Amino acid sequence: MIDTGRTVIEVAGELSVDKGSLARWVRDQRRRLGTVAGGRDDPLSPAERAELVRLRRQVAEQEKDFAFLGKAN
Q1: What is d(CA 8, CA 14) in angstroms, rounded to the nearest whole number?
Q2: Are the CB atoms for 24 and 32 separated by under 8 Å?
């Protein structure tokens, strides 16, 4: 998916997007996938990844609740 062996410059040219933007998107996606340690020496464990997913869902639900409550005031 993200690691096809092709260079950022090559893909950016094909997609007509800025190579710097594409490089940031790829780096951010790798961090989300846990393939880049983000300051750690190892990626997230399956349990850590599951917890992260659960917490992100919880935050998204709470943000929806806050938005609803903000409109109700």
Answers
A1: 10
A2: no
Query: Model-level pTM?
Result: 0.45
Tokens matching residue 28? 């951010």
pLDDT in tens, 1-58: 467 788 889 988 988 999 999 999 888 888 877 655 555 556 778 898 899 999 999 9
Q: What is the DSSP string of 20-69?
A: HHHHHHHHHHHHHHTSS-SSSSSPPPHHHHHHHHHHHHHHHHHHHHHHHH
Q: Which two tokens stand for residue 38?
A: 């983000």
What integer pLDDT is reported at residue 70 of this predicted model? 86
d(CA 24, CA 37): 15
Q: In this structure, what token pair is assigned to residue 71?
A: 């409109």
